[in-house]
Design goal:
heterodimer; A: mainly alpha; two-stranded parallel sheet; 24 helices; about 0% strand; B: about 20% helix; about 35% strand; globular
């Protein structure tokens, strides 16, 4: 009994290691010693890559902080017209992948574009580092906003009132009480922003900004040096690990400040209230409404394209990949998290922790790792089969959709892992004990107690993975089989060929799918914050 | 029925249970009490099968269900359990909660048993409610019915009333005793509330630091505590210094007390004598004077703290008709039925 369960623990750890293999291979690429091209890279492009990556991270982080914290404070603590609508509308830009709004804005600002004609003044070219920072800021500030808002809302009135009795004015109260209390939440949001910024491939590639992420792609396909690409990916991975640690650490530091009712919102006079509302609508207009409008205008004359066989094939492939990934990631996440619930021994805890790691890995890095692992697997399989006199199956793993699905599963596994972990932690361990003492075996416990109680996190996780997979660009770009395209890849290719209007249809499809998780998020915002113990 | 044979348990090399042995007969209700962290909940979880002992055995009807390297999984032990946080399945209604352990029985038998239990716990007609639609007391009764439904050999209850408020707690605990007696089931409770333990149990065990210090009837645990720890934990008495005069006499600030002494105490030995609040009687004809230091009104009774001439403070539970103001003097006498004496600087004594 004991040893059988212990044996299963090790199987689970092996499974988790297999899922982490692409990441481990990238991290391990340094063990082979520096690639012959490394000295050359370091002398030429690497400093530039690092400098620009840092610059983008710094600029985006700053922009997201200002917009995110400011907006969060305003909707949590002030009363003004349209506050409730803004509260969730501020999340809408989260639906846009950065590469899509990058090319939409390029079209909007182009010399023959709509804005240019309407305003009749020369508009700046956004294709450069500053433009990239603007694009990232517009779509990523919601991470900071979401975390900061939750922190501000949960702060009890008491802390503010105590500060008032001690003679602190509104500014002092914000900087000395509210902000420090919310800092862990804000840092966690900021870490997510920086991770997304560094992971981006589509925007910087389209804007021609050479960063680490595009550098990996170029080193691999331009220079043809897979080892150097993996080692560059290792550098990016290191930065991600640091950010992931910061994010986890900050989450643990989060504290609900005191008990008691939350602080009431301060009403603003009509004019300042309207001005504030207008200011808060700005990021939503720029980061969501205007791009959607532009995409819709481009799509309208081409609506027949919806029924064209090539668009349907595109849609079919994308849905197939997204649905398979959603299914695989949710099932694997459930297996790993549930197994740890059943018996939290060392290997099972390690397996669950390993499974949460993929999100830190940018698509480009992951693509490198996946190719290395799957190509090795294919080679091994072919060698084995030819050795016993059978025909080799070809690129069974690395040359099929399996590669894309595998990569996306690894990258997004953390979503069901975290969602189901939180869901299970909400259930008293005594529910399990009760079921067991009433005669339920582990499988019965899962079927009769856990699955019915985890329906919501299961569905939510699957939906989030589905949409994230639909949006995923770099992994699909590198790993898709020949003659196969996804919506994201097609939109990116068309945009890169300056066929902006033709890219609108797939882009709009991705963007609208992206609204679904935003709606889910806003529903979770509605839940009143229970005082946590 | 239930036999624990020298059970030991360690967490991270810290002993949690140390050589715990006890026997609980068929149809009896036992109760383990002790301060938090004394290992009582771990002991229950070990009997239920959620923990495995590091040494010793658990026997049910003479059949070992836990011994070194051989554990019967909890689902095969037929040991029911009621949990501190009640732990009803939130996605199932009352009927389905109670029927959870009956899923292998034919539907008709299942329905009959659920109806029987709903009536027994006094909740007929609430079968369609969901847990969140019930009050705390109702949830507790459903939890009890759920645990009883498959007719377990033994029922374990882990601080079952701690989630209820004080008034409800007393009422429900009395009801639970009646239900358990009618079902004729052997049950073992855990609590930190001695009143609850005395009200419910046929046998009481006092645990401290992972050891079972005494396993006895409530009467004997109260009046004949096995050691200082038990005496300290039960009944709110104090230990008053005294000196042995001879084999059955002790000199104290309240005069000479007679009774059997633990063996091995020579005349002149320093000892401690247990004085319960109900051992001291305010009596105008009493031989000793005392001063009222504090009085706490408790409705029917008044709890005084009295100070003797030598500074010794003693608790005294008196009828609240006689009110004595703080600072006034009273006459007292000791009405001791059982002389409980512990040798000083020694934890080990006997009756």
């Amino acid at each position: 009994m004991r040893s059988a369960a212990g044996g299963r623990s090790w199987l689970l750890l092996i499974l988790a290691l297999a899922l982490a293999a692409p990441v481990l291979v990238v991290a391990g690429s340094w063990l082979a010693g520096a690639s012959p091209n490394w000295a050359h890279l370091r002398a030429t492009v690497l400093p530039g890559y690092v400098r620009l990556s840092l610059l983008l991270a710094l600029g985006t982080g700053l922009g997201a902080l200002v917009i995110g914290v400011g907006a969060a404070w305003a909707v949590a603590r002030l009363r003004f017209p349209g506050r409730r609508l803004l509260e969730w509308a501020l999340l809408l830009p989260l639906a846009c992948p950065a590469y899509l709004i990058a090319y939409t804005w390029t079209g909007l600002l182009a010399s023959e574009g709509a804005l240019q004609r309407a305003l009749a003044i020369p508009l700046p070219d956004i294709r450069g580092p500053a433009g990239a920072v603007a694009m990232f800021t517009l779509v990523l500030y919601p991470y900071v906003y979401l975390m900061a808002r939750a922190a501000f809302v949960s702060q009890a009135a008491l802390a503010q009132e105590v500060a008032r009795t001690l003679g602190a004015g509104p500014w002092r109260r914000f900087f000395r009480v509210a902000l420090p209390l919310a800092r862990p939440a804000i840092v966690a949001g900021l870490a997510l922003v920086l991770m997304e910024t560094l992971a981006d491939y589509g925007t910087v590639a389209y804007f021609g900004v050479p960063t680490l992420s595009t550098g990996i792609y170029r080193t691999w396909f331009g220079l043809g040096d897979r080892l150097a690409a993996a080692q560059l990916a290792g550098v990016l991975l290191l930065a991600m690990v640091v950010l992931l640690w910061v994010e986890r650490h900050a989450r643990q530091q989060r504290r609900i400040a005191g008990g008691g009712p939350p602080a009431p919102a301060t009403p603003l006079r009509p004019l300042p209230g309207l001005l504030l509302a207008a200011l808060l609508w700005l990021p939503i207009v720029l980061g969501f409404l205007l791009p959607v409008l532009q995409l819709a205008l481009w799509s309208l004359p081409r609506w027949r394209g919806l029924l064209a066989p090539d668009f349907l094939a595109l849609l079919g492939t994308s849905l197939l990949i997204a649905a398979s990934t959603a299914l695989a990631a949710t099932a694997l996440g459930l297996l790993l998290i549930w197994a740890r619930r059943l018996r939290a021994d060392r290997p099972r805890r390690a397996a669950a922790r390993l499974a949460g790691f993929g999100y830190a890995v940018p698509g480009t890095v992951l693509a490198v790792g996946v190719v290395m692992v799957l190509a090795g697997l294919d080679r091994g399989l072919n060698d084995l089969l030819t050795a016993v006199g059978l025909p080799g199956p070809g690129l069974l793993f690395s040359g099929t959709l399996f590669a894309v699905i595998f990569a996306c599963t690894v990258r997004f596994l953390t979503i069901p892992v975290q969602g189901l972990d939180a869901g299970l932690q909400n259930l008293s361990p005594n529910l399990d004990s009760a079921a067991r003492s009433l005669g339920a075996r582990p499988a019965g416990l899962l079927r009769r107690v856990h699955l019915p109680l985890l329906r919501v996190p299961l569905a939510t996780s699957a939906l989030l993975v589905f949409v994230d997979t639909l949006k995923e660009l770099p992994a699909a770009l590198v790993l898709r089989p020949f003659n196969t395209n996804t919506l994201a890849v097609r939109a990116f290719e068309l945009a890169s060929d300056e066929r902006l209007a033709d890219a609108a249809l797939p882009a709009l499809a991705i963007l609208l799918a992206g609204v679904a998780p935003v709606i889910l998020l806003t529903r979770s915002m509605r839940v009143p914050h229970a005082p946590s113990r | 029925m239930l036999t624990l044979d020298r059970l030991s348990l360690r967490f991270d090399h810290q002993p949690v249970l140390d050589l715990v042995s006890l026997t609980l007969d068929e149809g009896r209700i036992g109760c383990l009490i002790g301060p938090s962290g004394c290992g009582k909940t771990s002991l229950l979880r070990l009997i239920a099968g959620f923990l495995a002992p590091d040494g010793g055995r658990v026997l049910l009807d003479g059949e070992p269900v836990a011994e070194a390297h051989r554990q019967t999984p909890p689902e095969q032990r037929r040991v029911g359990m009621v949990f501190q946080d009640i732990a009803l399945f939130p996605h199932l209604n009352v009927t389905d909660n109670i029927a959870f352990g009956l899923h292998r029985q034919p539907p008709a038998a299942r329905r009959a048993r659920v109806a029987e239990l709903l009536a027994r716990v006094g909740l007929p007609g609430l079968g369609d409610r969901y847990p969140h639609q019930l009050s705390g007391g109702q949830q507790q009764r459903v939890a009890l019915a759920r645990a009883l439904a498959p007719r377990p050999r033994l029922l374990l209850l882990d601080e079952p009333f701690s989630a209820l408020d004080a008034e409800l707690r007393e009422q429900i605990s009395r009801e639970v005793r009646q239900i358990l007696l009618r079902e004729g089931i052997t049950a073992l409770f855990v609590t930190h509330d001695q009143n609850e333990a005395f009200a419910l149990a046929d046998q009481v065990g006092v645990m401290h630091g992972g050891e079972l210090r005494q396993w006895d009837t409530p009467y004997r645990v109260y009046h004949q505590p096995a050691d200082r720890t038990v005496a300290d934990f039960i009944g709110g008495g104090v230990l008053m210094p005294g000196r042995v005069r001879d084999v059955d006499r002790v000199d104290t600030a309240l005069g000479e007390l007679r009774g059997p002494l633990p063996p091995g105490l020579a005349p002149g030995a320093e000892v401690d004598v247990l004085v319960r609040p109900d051992d001291l009687v305010i009596d105008d004809a009493g031989p000793r004077r005392a001063r009222v230091v504090e009085c706490l009104f408790r409705g029917a009774r008044m709890l005084y703290t009295l100070e003797l001439d030598n500074g010794q403070r003693l608790p005294c539970l008196a009828n609240s008709h006689h009110a004595h103001a703080e600072g006034t003097g009273v006459a007292v006498r000791l009405d001791l039925e059982h002389l409980v004496v512990f040798a000083q600087s020694s934890r080990l004594t006997s009756r």
